[in-house]
């Protein structure tokens, strides 16, 4: 991706956020209140993820899990019915509009991972770190039901690292190498239609 493409991508992100945020601010606040009542914890959940150029940033989500030690592959066990609904509908990710607005994320790009994944990319795979992580993207669409897939595995952590993560790297690398503004628009439309 060129510097010009990155600038256009950023301008588009800010424009789209300023269009959607006034419409979605009330639903976001209502979801935060409902999640606070449901989980008995503050309804916004924050966690550090790896962003552009491998730099950590704080991601915002609607809280969906009750207190407890959560492990990959059994997250839905700790979620209420409301929490499961938020996770499946992806409404828990609405606060990431603020991540986009402040420049940590983009509407389209590789999903931001926990430390130990994107920050450890080697060689040509590090091209993925040139772009900001996205709310949606080609790998996000393919692995929309990732949690359900992991729940069926005997060793979800191993499966995630050796199968899903490896495939995501290939998909995200192809996205960056073949980036176009039209591709971003297509992925946003696909994500909207898959809700």
UniProtKB/TrEMBL annotation:
Q: Name one GO molecular function term.
A: transferase activity
Q: Where is the Bacterial sugar transferase domain?
A: 9-191
Q: Where are the transmembrane segments?
A: 12-37
Q: Which organism is it from?
A: Winogradskyella litoriviva
What family does this chain come from, according to its entry?
Belongs to the bacterial sugar transferase family.
Q: Which residues form a coiled coil?
A: none
What does UniProt give as the signal peptide span?
A: none
Q: Which UniProt keywords apply?
A: Membrane, Transferase, Transmembrane, Transmembrane helix
* Keyword Transmembrane belongs to the record: yes
In Swiss-Prot or TrEMBL terms, this protein is called: Sugar transferase
Question: Superkingdom of the source?
Answer: Bacteria
Which Pfam families does the protein's record reference?
Bac_transf
User: What InterPro entries does this protein's entry cite?
Assistant: Bact_transf
């Amino acid at each position: 991706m060129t510097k010009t493409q990155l600038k256009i991508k950023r301008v588009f992100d800010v424009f789209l956020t300023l269009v959607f945020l006034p419409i979605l601010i009330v639903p976001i606040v209502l979801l935060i209140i409902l999640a606070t009542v449901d989980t008995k914890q503050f309804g916004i959940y924050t966690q550090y993820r790896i962003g552009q150029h491998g730099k950590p940033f704080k991601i915002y989500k609607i809280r969906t899990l009750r207190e407890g030690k959560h492990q990959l592959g059994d997250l839905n066990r700790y979620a209420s019915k409301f929490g499961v609904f938020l996770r499946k509908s992806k409404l828990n990710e609405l606060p990431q509009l603020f991540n986009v607005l402040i420049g940590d994320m983009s509407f389209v790009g590789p999903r931001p991972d926990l430390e130990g994944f994107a920050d450890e990319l080697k060689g040509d795979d590090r091209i993925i770190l040139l772009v900001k992580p996205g709310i949606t993207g080609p790998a996000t669409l393919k692995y929309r039901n990732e949690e359900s897939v992991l729940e069926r595995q005997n060793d979800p952590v191993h499966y995630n690292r050796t199968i899903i993560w490896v495939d995501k790297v290939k998909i995200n690398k192809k996205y960056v190498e073949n980036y176009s503004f039209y591709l971003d628009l297509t992925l946003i439309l696909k994500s909207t239609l898959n809700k």
